[in-house]
Structure formats: structure tokens, C-alpha cells
């Protein structure tokens, strides 16, 4: 069976053990929990939603989607009053 590599054919390529791939995925997910926890808390949402990143393939998009499509109670309204998001006025006069 020439050309199959050391680990044989598989979706992770030759020579890569499935356990290693799972460990790397879990490691990256664990690294993302803390930042998502803080973002959810600052947005006024339940920080336990950050555990969604542990779900393979759907967890990270779901966690980001919750943040993207929720209203942020302590964000834009405060900055908009300072003129950060306010449109620039063109003057309007013949000055």
C-alpha cells in the first residue's frame, strides 16, 4: 500500500493521530472561553454562553452570533452621545 503514509489514509492526513487533533481543538476552545466570558459579561449577557465554544464546528459561530445580533446595553448609546458615531455636519451655512 504505497502512498498511504505512516498513519494510513484519513481526513487528518498521514501520520496525524486523531487524539492529537482532538486535543489541539479542545486546547484552542479552552483558550477562547475566558475572553468570551468577559465579553458576554461586559455586554450585559449571561457569561455562561461562553461555554458554547466547546461545541465542535458550531460553538464558535454560535457564540459570536449571539454577540453580533444582541443589543448591547452599555455600549453604543454612551459613545454616541460623545459624537464618536455621530455623522459629521457639513456646516449647512454659507459661511
UniProtKB/TrEMBL annotation:
Domain of life from the UniProt record: Bacteria
Residue ranges of the region described as Disordered: 74-95
Annotated transmembrane regions: 20-37, 49-69
Keyword Transmembrane: yes
Transmembrane helix as UniProt keyword: yes
Keywords: Membrane, Transmembrane, Transmembrane helix
Protein name as it appears in the record: DUF805 domain-containing protein
Source organism of the structure: Rhodovibrio sodomensis
Amino acid at each position: 500500500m504505497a502512498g498511504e503514509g505512516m498513519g494510513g489514509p484519513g481526513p487528518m492526513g498521514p501520520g496525524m493521530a486523531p487524539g492529537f487533533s482532538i486535543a489541539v481543538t479542545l486546547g484552542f476552545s479552552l483558550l477562547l472561553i475566558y475572553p468570551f466570558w468577559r465579553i458576554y459579561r461586559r455586554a450585559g449577557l449571561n457569561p455562561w454562553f461562553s461555554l458554547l465554544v466547546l461545541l465542535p464546528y458550531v460553538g464558535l459561530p454560535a457564540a459570536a452570533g449571539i454577540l453580533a445580533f444582541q443589543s448591547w446595553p452599555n455600549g453604543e448609546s454612551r459613545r454616541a452621545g460623545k459624537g464618536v458615531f455621530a455623522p459629521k455636519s457639513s456646516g449647512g451655512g454659507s459661511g
